[in-house]
Design goal:
Layout lengths: L1 H17 L16 E4 L3 E2 L8 H15 L5 E2 L2 H10 L10 H11 L3 E10 L2 E10 L4 E11 L3 H15 L14 H17 L3 H14 L4 H13 L3 H12 L8 H19 L1
Parallel strand pairs: 1-3, 1-4, 2-4
Antiparallel strand pairs: 4-5, 5-6
Helix pairs in contact: 2-5, 2-6, 3-4, 6-7, 7-8, 8-9, 9-10
Length: 272
């Protein structure tokens, strides 16, 4: 499933870049300020548990780029609006007329794509920036480190990309652009701790994310998983029950139900 989706993402990027005539030219001549469309990052770990990083990294990079003077980042609401209007997803096949419309609506002149993989205990993140008008690769960069330091890895990557496109990097100001980047920051930190088994610390980060946005259901799911990792089965069930009350409005309902059954079984065994 993941491999098929990633192939579709690659096909989409190819067609998007091939449509360069509908957006801006002359970026390399310094006539235009960067307008960047950031795509979800491809999970190349081969493990489904890392899929939350696909959009999480995208959102964190968008937040950091948005703080840089002279750069405009295509916001998520505009991306969602165009995909809803055309009844498509960025991971799907798109014909030329749809690509033209995407260019008209988003006004992007650069596309940032990338992926991540694991090499033993190291997280490796690769990023590529393409000039839509020329379809040329502008730059590629890599940053790596222990997954628990995922936020620092992402910041290093953004710094390299900014230097490559000759943009002065501004200091990150806690990503207080709006509520969403702060939520994403805590969520990504939580994932970093979760993946290395530091469940208590992970749970605190997910709680911070939920305090900022109580409707961030994926953060609640991972908070439940963190409780499970710490063998706090009762607390795990409480969080999962909140998710199950959402019914089919929560796309990961079956995952929450399966986790709940596992938690109930472990709780029963503990009592016996």
């Amino acid at each position: 499933m993941t491999r098929k989706r990633n192939m579709k993402m690659t096909i989409f990027l190819f067609f998007l870049l091939a449509s360069g005539s509908v957006v801006y030219a002359g970026l390399e001549e310094g006539k235009l300020k960067p307008v960047i469309l950031v795509l979800p990052f491809e999970n190349s770990t081969g493990l489904l548990k890392y899929e939350p990083l696909e959009k999480g990294l995208r959102d964190l990079i968008m937040a950091d780029l948005s703080q840089q003077e002279g750069i405009t980042v295509v916001d998520r609401d505009k991306i969602k609006a165009i995909t809803k209007e055309l009844s498509l997803k960025f991971s799907g096949l798109i014909d030329r007329k749809h690509i033209l419309r995407i260019g008209q609506v988003t006004g992007a002149n650069l596309v940032l794509s990338g992926g991540f993989l694991l090499d033993q205990d190291k997280l490796i993140i690769d990023a590529h920036i393409y000039d839509i008008a020329t379809t040329q690769l502008v730059t590629s960069e890599r940053a790596q480190g222990e997954i628990v330091n995922i936020v620092a890895i992402e910041e290093e990557l953004v710094g390299k990309l900014l230097k490559d496109i000759d943009m002065k990097s501004s200091a990150i100001k806690n990503r207080e652009i709006d509520n969403h980047p702060s939520v994403t920051l805590h969520y990504i930190r939580g994932l970093g701790y979760y993946y290395v088994g530091r469940f208590n610390r992970a749970g605190k980060e997910f709680m911070e994310a939920l305090q900022l946005n109580p409707d961030f259901h994926d953060a609640r799911l991972f908070r439940a998983r963190s409780y499970l990792g710490d063998k706090e089965y009762q607390h795990c069930l409480i969080e999962l029950q909140k998710l199950m009350r959402l019914g089919e409005t929560y796309p990961k309902q079956s995952e929450a139900q399966e986790l709940s059954r596992e938690c109930e079984k472990l709780l029963s065994e503990e009592k016996n």
